[in-house]
Amino acid sequence: MDTKSDRKLDITKKILDVEDDSVLSKIEEILAETETVAYTTNGESLNRDQYKKRIEDISKEVQSGGKNFTSDEVQDYVKNRKI
After folding, report:
1. In this predicted model, what pLDDT tens digit does every residue of 5-36 receive, in sequence order?
2. Which of 6, 21, 49, 82 is an S-S bond match for 2, by CB 3.0 to 4.6 Å?
3. Helix or strand or coil: residue 37?
4. How many domains is the chain partitioned into structurally?
5. Based on the domain organization, do 2 and 22 belong to the same domain?
């Protein structure tokens, strides 16, 4: 069984031989969909769709009466929390 590194090398070699622009465009789309654009406070990576959903969920929670904080409250918390 090939390792992940072997698979990546095999795919890279195949990509280098691709001449069809539509295939390259599809590869770019796939890579863009899975690209990490943000991280959660727990360090989990989020792609564009996951990040967008997370922001929408937070907005819905705030609209439903969820607690939110001002910038000053956040700064005060960060400066004064006990580590």
Report:
1. 999 999 999 999 999 999 999 999 999 889 99
2. 6
3. strand
4. 2
5. yes
